[in-house]
Amino acid sequence: MKSYRLNRLFHPVSQKCFDVAIDHGLFNEYSFLKGIESIQTSVDTLIGACPDAIQLTIGQLKYLQRVPGRQKPSLVLRTDVANVYGESIPSAPFSKMIAEPVLQAVRADAACLCINLFSIPGAPEVTAQCIENILKIKPASDYYSMPLMIEAIVFKPNRESGGYMVDGNIQKILPLVRQAVELGADIIKADPSDNVDDYHRVIEIAGDVPVLVRGGGKAPDEEIIDRTIHLMEKGAAGIVYGRNIIQHERPELITKALMGIVHEKKSKEDAFRILNI
Question: What is the pLDDT of residues 130-158, one digit of tens each?
Fold first, then answer.
């Protein structure tokens, strides 16, 4: 029965998904607020651009779900909050799950849950908390037929990056993605590898679990478009982009350009024609 909700996430023809994440305010980082200072404006803009889903927190989902009509994007509910995205790892890092996340998702008419699985050098206790969170949420997810998206993120050592930076080492991404699959993910959300040509290995290691690729930090349009085209060619089931949408000068146009790539296999030239309207 999870397929009923998955049908609301994945396009009926392409069987791909574009989820725009604007749940960043939950993580208490000033830099994450750029582009979502007014969450109502951000949600309204995205509804007009028609992505498949919008990822929101329990405190912000109302801006999407109170909008009337049947054609708005589906809700992906963020279920956990962490304090590990700053310039340094805090002395007491954590990843904590909201109470009764599946029931809250059911009440909010969500189509999917999203929960983190961190691998952070020097903070194994956070990984342990993430695994505990997943083990708690999984049975209720199955009981209530609520799809579970596990977001597998490998961090670079803080001494190298000087803050939150993801590690695109394929040998680190693969085991974490596989662990997420083994823990029962219905959808995987994972970072791109440093060498995009290697990403077919992530798709293979996930088996029949669809992989949506994270967008990461803000990047130039050409880089994002090229990367998205290559990732989709490698077998990705879609994308989950946040800052590259909400911090763009024309969020509605970059959304439409990327939707064309994800669902219609549009070319780089097609994407830039949409951006230059």
Answer: 999 999 999 999 999 999 999 999 999 87
